[in-house]
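Following up on my earlier thread - several people asked me to post the actual chain instead of describing it. Fair enough. Here it is, all 399 residues.
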Amino acid sequence: MKLDFFKMALILGLLSCVGPIAIDMYLPALPDIALGLGAPVEAAQYTLMSYFIAFGVCQLFYGPASDMFGRKPPLYFGLVLFTLASVGCALAPTIESLIVLRFLQGVGAASVMSIPRAVIRDYYTGTQATRLMTTVMLVISISPMLAPLIGSALIIPFGWRSVFLLIALLTLASLILAITSLPETLQREHRVPFRLNAMFGAFSTLLRDPVYVGLTCIGGLGIASFFSFLATASFLYTDFYGLTPTEFSLAFALNALGFFTSSQFAANLGVRYGSVAVVKWATAGFAVSSLGMCMVVFSGFDQFILLVAMLLTCNIFLGLVIPTSMVLSLEEHGPIAGTAAALGGALQMLLGALAIVVTSLVFDGTPLPLTAAIAVCGISALAISRLTLRGIAHLAVPY
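Reply from S.P.:
Thanks for posting it. Predicted structure:
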């Protein structure tokens, strides 16, 4: 028996919030973490990088595990590990221990990245899957709009460690929600027996599919551009532009609002023009807007309001690119949806982690490295879309 569409979207959205909350809520605390633990800015940024590396790589294990054992047992494991690691982060005595514990957080959070996408594929394909994905993203939008504000409100009176304690409590609540309200969507007769060669065979099948790889890279470059923003925004906004943690949180929420508002139109645009066309044109819009932003900043126009407006424009296009490309990448791989979602998520997170490393190395406290990184992502995504989606009108018949 299928859950009501919106009830399923609410449950999956709340579960999927776990990973973003661990990023968004502690972003305003990055300068305080560096100061409190006596660490350089780069070391504080590495707490993001270690999280994303684990978040990406470990999806490779959760996806096949969810195809073999059902969707819920791996999800339980990930949420329990995430809760314990969050408590550890709150108690971390050094920046090195915090980096390690953030890595363990990422190991647990990987479960709520790939498994909800596989659950969506268990229920729907085509435009219905896009509609459910974008509705889930509407629920997830609570995180980037409210989490930084909550984090700022906690940091001022209680310090940065309180953020991780709240994250632990919220994750525990998500675990209870998964146990009590989420049905098992992969029945026993449809599960894949554990065979190492079968798992690597599925990876080989996916990596030899140019459309799957292309769509995964397009979505991954969109995510990488956002991760470049995550790695630098708190320092750029507070040090270069002089914003308070609360003002930073409001500016961050505005950019997130652009992404999640436009994502709600992805399914309807897909019905009207075709999902492949949506990816092609939205990728072109992202490339043009990101290149324009870089050129404006390079010319010396670095006013804060202008930068926020240009980032908002880029994120509006990303709101169409990312969910549509995610759904399309799974269309032809229903029998191994968990593995396909996991491999796609892993590749995308690794692109994001690479973006954090590169942007952190070249970051000089000004907006130019950030806007250059986003422009590189936009132009690369456009090139890949033209190479891999040329002449393709559809991938599967929606039903």
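The chain has a mean pLDDT of 83. That should answer part of your original question.
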